[in-house]
Specification:
Pfam families: Rv2179c-like (PF16473). With 196 residues, this protein is of the alpha/beta class. It contains six helices and five strands, in the order βββαααβαβαα.
Length: 196
């Protein structure tokens, strides 16, 4: 089956799940040609024995409007995550989680899926946009930052710290990168064929 790329962003009140909570999740499912197939968004109740990390909460204090949006219409994670798993399984194609950075967002999503849905429809398939950028830019990992990325990768989409807005923004960027990688690969393949 063709791959479908589920760009996902989470907002949290700390660096790791369990001691801290996922406040909001947003996912945008893209086909490789940047067709947006479907979206998912939910705000979650905090875990009963968890608390906000002081550093994260200090950041939220400076971004109070965005934090307040994560607290609207909250639902229990035991309701949200099975619904999210069902949504993922309804998507056409082979599911690939896409994050920036995947190491952070996937950690929360995977933990919550296993804890509250009993499964991860992603299995362990998580693609990190920054690592992909490193390969495309042929640079060091720590140099593969947004400020060093070409403007052609960025669509004019908002970055609001709303989980769904940010998932759509980064998903479009990933699809632009994917298109460029495929075009480069096609040119390279053609050169190899011509040299034979």
């Amino acid at each position: 089956m063709p791959e479908i790329y589920i760009s996902t962003d989470v907002e949290t009140d700390g660096p790791i799940p369990g001691p801290h909570s996922m406040l909001s999740i947003g996912s945008a499912a893209f086909l490789p040609d940047k067709t947006l197939v479907a979206t998912f968004k939910a705000n979650l109740e905090t875990l009963p024995d968890a608390s906000g990390h002081p550093d994260t909460m200090a950041w939220w204090d400076r971004n109070r409007r965005a934090f307040n949006k994560t607290r609207e219409n909250v639902e229990p994670p035991e309701i949200v995550m099975p619904r999210y798993a069902d949504w993922l399984k309804s998507l056409p194609g082979s599911r690939v989680f896409v994050g920036y950075p995947a190491g952070f967002d996937f950690t929360f999503v995977y933990w919550y899926l296993i804890r509250f849905a009993g499964e991860s429809p992603f299995s362990f398939s998580a693609l990190d946009i920054k690592t992909f950028a490193m390969a495309l830019l042929k640079t060091e990992y720590r140099e593969a930052t947004k400020r060093n990325m070409p403007r052609r990768w960025f669509d004019k989409l908002p970055h609001t710290h709303d989980a769904l807005d940010d998932a759509i923004e980064q998903g479009a960027m990933f699809c632009n990168m994917l298109k460029e990688w495929r075009e480069r690969s096609a040119v390279s393949d053609q050169r190899s064929a011509n040299s034979e």
